[in-house]
Amino acid sequence: MFKTRVITASLLLPLFVGGMFWLDSGWWAVALLPLVLAGAWEWGTLAGFGRLSRWFYCGFILASGLTVLLAGHHWHLLDVEKTVLWASALFWFICAPLWLWIGWKPRKPVSFFVAGWILLVPTWIAMVRLQSAPWVLLSVLGVIWVADSAAYFAGRNWGRHKLAATISPGKTWEGVFGGAVAVAVYHLLVWNFGLAAQSPANGLAAALLVAVLFPLSILGDLFESWIKRQAGVKDSGKLLPGHGGILDRIDALTSTLPLAALAISWMMTRP
Hints:
Structural class: mainly alpha
Largest sheet: 2 strands, antiparallel
Low-confidence stretches: none
Number of helices: 9
Helix content: over 70%
């Protein structure tokens, strides 16, 4: 399984990073669209939507996401974008922790309908907007990738104490600690050897952002694990060999990128 994961990542990652640097914002948004729609389809499956309802949901995600992008880019209604990003941030800071704390098991389709939109559309918007500074976007993605990989290896080798046994039995506090150490080292190296010249943030602001993104990435992972557990499945799909589905790969991005986009936008506009 590990070999398959590496092969899949080695094939897709260069295409993803290449598009991030070489495509203009419009084509970058289009390039991300298959991932967004695949995520919407998987979410509809986890929610128990019928086939027709899943097609409708994908169409709704597409139409609403494009409307928000056009509002910000062509119609200069940037407040629409910010409202969507803020809605995501509030969901992850308030709703998602409460959802997991009380162990909520939603029964009505509208709950899944709204939650899936909050996961997918703001992430798409954030990914498109952050691409205007590709090195900054890559560094933010690096935080998530390093955290996930380091937590996996630390938990696999030294994990003893469960982080959330009823949600995701494989996650441990040792994995969290390993991920935190790796992210701290990663940030120090990236910031001191190049990102400081590319980023609108000062050192303290960048460190604070990373410190917030790390636990949010864990929350995003746990939230998707809880939804999958309620659906009775291990993976959200089978699209990515060795990795599962699209949601399995972007779970931590859904909880971090919208906030990162807000924070970096503020850093770029402050005097």
